[in-house]
Amino acid sequence: MADISKDQVKHVAHLARLAVTDEEVDKFTEQLSSIITYAEQLNELDTDGVEPTTHVLDLKNVLRKDEPKEWITQEEALKNAPDKKDGHYRVPSILE
């Protein structure tokens, strides 16, 4: 892949709505080109026979088993509510 040009850096900065100086454009051009060069080294690896992974760890379902259990009653849930009415929490209105 070709090196990143200054015009490409300016174009990406424009798309990202970033104000960059000419010094920053020079700096980013050099840095992005070195990043691309480094990433291109991955193309040299032989990945034949390597199974694609979706996660680096071999995780299975990590969620707990969904089992019914006893829960608190409505009265227990509302006992510390500062304001309640007809079995519901009352909160200040946010709509006018």
- The H-and-E topology, N to C, reads as HHHEE
CATH architecture of the domain at 6-44: Orthogonal Bundle
Terminal Cα separation, in Å?
58 Å
Radius of gyration: 29 Å
Proportion of helical residues: 25-40%
Largest sheet report:
2 strands, antiparallel
Q: How many strand elements?
A: 2
Give the percentage of residues in beta strands: under 5%
Estimate the global geometry from the Cα principal axes: flat
**CATH H-level superfamily of the domain at 6-44:** Glu-tRNAGln amidotransferase C subunit, N-terminal domain
Biggest β-sheet: strands ordered side by side in the sheet: 1-2
Short note summarizing the structure:
The protein is mainly alpha-helical and 96 residues long.
